[in-house]
Write a structure and sequence with these properties.
The complex is a heterodimer of chains A (427) and B (282). Chain A is α+β, with helices and mostly antiparallel strands. Chain A contains 12 helices and 18 strands. With 282 residues, chain B is mostly helical. The model of chain B has no long low-confidence stretch (mean pLDDT 89). The chains are: A alpha+beta (427), B mainly alpha (282).
């Protein structure tokens, strides 16, 4: 049942759990068969481009929208169960207007009382959260007199009111000046471990800084979910930006624990992947740096993994020649989601009901299936696709690929031939 | 207990909101001025009519009572007229006027209570903290309290002016004034429920107001038509306006029945509004 990667399959109960959740608005599928779990105590990012289904997913978690199908639980309860979740769930809605005629303090006290804080402490709690967002002086200000940024901060204050166990924040720093945005990020980070915070945002740098887990959505479907380290591969990949000089690829390959070494001339970036068990990223950076310095290489930057922004771009957007293409083949809905330059074809196989199987083509050992009902099925599916793509290769239009797709559906293994017509151009 | 607390908190917020808003203040002022002015004009007109009737002489109280009784018989059944004859006419006029104004006043005060907060998604701030049905019921209760308070203010003003102008004795005003005000509460509750339903039906306040006004007008016209149609008079009991005259009946059972029917309207409409909001995507 659990399609989440190992990192999200933790022993402790999740704060939020989505099981095959879909939401349709008429014929539009805003969210389609999304499943993931949000570990308690984590700061979880909900990532995706416009129209990815982030806000719809968020709204379902907050109980504003009812899923068309599937199950969604917040602290083991349905989010509509306000009586049970009262005081345990705080939400910052994206576009909800504060009541214009009410004073900020009066409004916050009302919310505090509504969520069960006793009258003696309601005002104290309200003043505390307002002070946390640097708005202590707005107590008697009418909400209609607040600027966009001030209103946003009042919204954040009310979400943290009464120290709820789960806090959902939709675009918490949108429209805020950098100083206040920084304060809000610190506020979120300070809650780490104290409560579960779910942040939906377009600001990937912010999410990378704040979150320890994330889910990437695209076109209403879950592309991948996992820890930030898994998403950015920061625990198994280090990158070195080299200014000029020699690139000692061969010497680096001999370093203990190094798995692959690749150099991208266009960006002058040296990418080193390594076995997680042999060394951590910091140790690997040290080892590679020693070699680079020894070989007189000029280093202009070092990073762990790919960076969330790059990862999201790869998975969801057409950027820099990385082509994202969807092709469907009948009921089995075989989808080629991405052609990754220089590496391989990425495939997502969707059975329609079981969600996505995302995999990267290549030797089975290097393939990943972050969200798969059956990882081996996905691997088999991918390995059945034609020859590996190479950098600069063009797949002519229309190309036809056939593969054997086997998948698990309702506990039974099924197998089918799928044909997919698609066109794609690799960088 | 929690539900009651949620309803109570929401009702008090709604009351504060109504009393602090420019719309609430303007409507309240207009209602009070209009009601008090109308009642004063009526009292002055009655006095003038009596002076004309007595041709400058003081009419004996018995003759005045007979004249009043015969006038009441034109409108009410004899037993009801006998019952109402001791009520100062200005209070009767005020009561009928109040019942006439309550539907529109309630609609104007509350058409945006739910639709306004749905349109701007303000309800989202409350949805995770309280049952949606509690919020709707709280808003309905708040609206009812607002209207009832406003009606009480108007009635208080008229009671005082009636005493000053000698339109009734202190005993008559103390007996009939609170009684008539209490009866108007049932009517206010009924229209608070109806207003909550219209407000919950639509996401846009202007649409809720437009449809609400149209529906009230249609109900009024339908009530008139049904009263004049032979054999269809019973159908008029489906409309709340039918119970206005029953509230003044001399028979306690009929009064209680009318109050019960108005409260049934309140229950059905406010629960329907709650269910609509509960099922709706916010």
């Amino acid at each position: 049942m659990n399609d989440a990667p190992a990192s999200l399959r933790e022993s402790r109960p999740p704060a939020v759990e989505l099981r095959s959740v879909s939401k349709h608005f008429g014929s539009t599928r805003a969210v389609n068969d999304v499943s993931f779990r949000i570990p308690e105590g984590s700061i979880f990012g909900l990532i995706g481009p416009n129209g990815a289904g982030k806000t719809t997913t968020f709204s379902m978690m907050a109980g504003y929208l009812t899923p068309t199908s599937g199950d969604l639980f917040v602290l083991d309860h349905r989010p509509e169960a306000a009586a049970v979740l009262k005081g345990k769930l705080g939400v910052l809605p994206q576009d909800a207007l504060l009541p214009p005629g009410e004073e900020v303090g009066e409004f916050l006290v009302y919310l505090a009382r509504l969520q069960g804080i006793d009258p003696a402490h309601a005002e104290k709690s309200a003043r505390e959260v307002l002070a946390e967002v640097d708005g202590a002086t707005w107590w008697n200000t009418r909400c209609k007199a607040l600027s966009h940024g001030m209103a946003k901060r009042v919204g954040i204050a009310q979400a943290f009111l009464g120290d709820p166990r789960v806090v959902l924040l939709d675009e918490p720093t949108a429209g805020l000046d950098p100083r206040v945005a920084y304060q809000i990020r610190q506020l979120i980070k300070a809650r780490k471990g104290r409560c579960t915070v779910v942040v939906s945002s377009h600001n990937l740098q912010e999410l990378e800084e704040v979150c320890d887990h994330a889910a990437i959505l695209d076109r209403g479907q879950l592309v991948v979910a996992g820890t930030m380290a898994e998403l950015t591969a920061s625990a198994e990949e280090v990158r070195f930006e080299l200014a000029r000089g020699p690139v000692p690829e061969e010497e680096i390959r001999t370093i203990a624990g190094v798995k692959t070494v690749a150099f991208e001339p266009a960006r002058r970036e040296l990418i080193v992947t390594f076995e997680r068990g042999d060394a951590d990223a910091e140790e690997m950076i040290r080892r590679v740096l020693l070699v680079l310095l020894d070989k007189q290489a000029r280093i202009s930057g070092v990073s762990k993994g790919r960076g969330l922004e790059q990862r999201v771009m790869e998975l969801t957007l057409r950027v820099g020649g990385v082509v994202r293409y969807l092709a469907t083949a009948g009921e089995n809905d075989l989808r080629l989601v991405q052609c990754e330059a220089g590496s391989s074809l990425s495939l997502a196989v969707c059975s329609g009901r079981r969600g996505w199987w995302l995999a990267r083509r290549g030797p089975p050992a290097t393939m990943t299936a972050p969200r798969s009902a059956s990882g081996s099925s996905a691997r088999r599916a991918c390995s059945a696709v034609g020859s590996p793509a190479r950098e600069g290769q063009k797949i002519h239009r229309p190309a036809r690929l056939c593969c054997i797709v086997s998948w698990c559906w309702r506990g039974r293994r099924r197998q089918s031939w799928c044909g997919a017509r698609f066109s794609a151009t690799l960088r | 207990m929690s539900t009651m607390l949620e309803i109570g908190l929401t009702a008090s917020r709604e009351l504060r909101r109504n009393l602090k808003s420019a719309k609430g203040l303007a409507m309240g002022a207009l209602f009070l001025l209009g009601g008090t002015g109308g009642s004063l004009l009526y009292a002055r007109f009655t006095r003038y009519a009596l002076e004309r009737l007595g041709q400058g002489k003081v009419i004996p109280p018995e003759a005045l009572r007979d004249a009043k009784l015969s006038a009441l018989k034109e409108v009410y059944q004899e037993a009801t007229a006998q019952y109402l004859v001791d009520c100062p006419t200005v209070l009767l006029f005020l009561f009928r006027g109040t019942l006439l104004a309550i539907p529109l006043l309630t609609l104007l005060a509350g058409f945006d209570s739910i639709s306004g907060e749905t349109q701007h998604r303000t309800l989202r701030y409350f949805a995770a903290r309280a049952e949606r049905s509690s919020i709707v019921l709280g808003k309905t209760l708040g609206l009812w309290v607002t209207i009832s308070g406003l009606v009480l203010l108007l009635h208080l003003a008229v009671w005082v002016l009636s005493l000053i102008n000698d339109d009734g004795t202190a005993a008559q005003i103390a007996s009939w004034g609170p009684r008539l005000w209490a009866l108007s509460l049932a009517c206010a509750a009924c229209y608070a429920g109806i207003t909550a339903l219209f407000s919950a039906l639509f996401r846009t306040p202007a649409v809720a107001l437009f449809v609400g006004v149209a529906a009230l007008a249609a109900m009024g016209v339908l009530g008139l038509i049904l009263n004049f149609m032979e054999g269809a008079g019973q159908l008029a009991y489906l409309l709340p306006s039918k119970y206005d005259s029953l509230l003044l009946s001399h028979e306690p059972t009929r009064v209680l029945g009318a109050i019960g029917a108005l409260l049934a309207w309140t229950t059905v409409t406010s629960l329907t509004a709650s269910e609509l909001v509960r099922r709706r995507d916010l």
